[in-house]
Amino acid sequence: MGAPLLSPGWAAGAAGRRSYVLLAPFLLTLLLVRPSGALVEGLYCGTRDCYEVLGVSRSAGKAEIARAYRQLARRYHPDRYRPEPGDEGPGRTPQSAEEAFLLVATAYETLKDEETRKDYDYMLDHPEEYYSHYYHYYSRRLAPKVDVRVVILVSVCAISVFQFFSWWNSYNKAISYLATVPKYRIQATEIAKQQGLLKKAKEKGKNKKSKEEIRDEEENIIKNIIKSKIDIKGGYQKPQICDLLLFQIILAPFHLCSYIVWYCRWIYNFNIKGKEYGEEERLYIIRKSMKMSKSQFDSLEDHQKETFLKRELWIKENYEVYKQEQEEELKKKLANDPRWKRYRRWMKNEGPGRLTFVDD
């Protein structure tokens, strides 16, 4: 059979594809190639040389640059500019004088800083590195003026101070509440009477106090006794310095190393050697099964923890049985709760999806 005939449309498409293949490198070259001139609009002094703007050489020192800047700034300052006869400089009008003043200020800002001047000199010597000049220019322009480490340190310290006073406020609220609970107030009052603290508050003679002062002093005595006798745990516990964010960050490497050592010992003792769990390890497994934090678990009563140990809840099967019992008990409580009954009745009769009208 003869060779298949090619349609004119297919031939035109093939020719177009060949032209695109040949044109692609040319377009890529146009995209990547930039003007080789050292002075670029939008960088530093734009198309003007910063050294020429100030009228100094590239070898000029800081003092010479500062002196040239002061002279030109006085000359082109918008509020003080007065055109001189025969002045053909860049600032012949107040508007052009303002532009000249801004250009002089930009040149001085560029050349007074060692690092910025180094970048500018590099741009003059290597004009072909177009994108690199843009990167260095804007990285310095947009870089924060204050050290980031200082900002982080100040922020952490501020958060730590807020934490400390917030925790103290919560702790004092808890003590004030416990002082109103009859159980704890009666016990604290008995202890205060045994120690003779209340008699001191009611001393007579020259140091006689008003009833309000005596009442306030007795209240403070009772609160201090509650503070010393009751160990509050959880979110209202007495604040500790080591719990603050600042100290947690400082002690983070120590805590990390301690955890690694503890984990390795756990693997070695219980997974490899097969030792039996101690009381501390059993409570840890129970806490993890209950998905409670350490502070939440520590706030539980001792008799509750003893119950957990007696029922051997560190064993997964025993914990599943205990969990199911707790869920059933909760359902019974809710079933006998009048408020829950009213809520179920309302959901059945007038709950979502039911529109009712009440005639007053």
UniProtKB/TrEMBL annotation:
GO terms for cellular component: endoplasmic reticulum membrane. Keywords: Chaperone, Membrane, Transmembrane, Transmembrane helix. PROSITE patterns: DNAJ_2. It is found in: Membrane. Residues 49-124 form the J domain. The chain crosses the membrane at residues 20-40, 150-168, 245-264. InterPro entries: DnaJ_domain, DNAJC25-like, J_dom_sf. It is a multi-pass membrane protein. GO terms for biological process: protein folding. The keyword Transmembrane helix applies. Gene3D superfamilies: DnaJ domain (1.10.287.110). Belongs to the DNAJC25 family. PANTHER family: DNAJ HOMOLOG SUBFAMILY C MEMBER 25. This is DnaJ homolog subfamily C member 25.
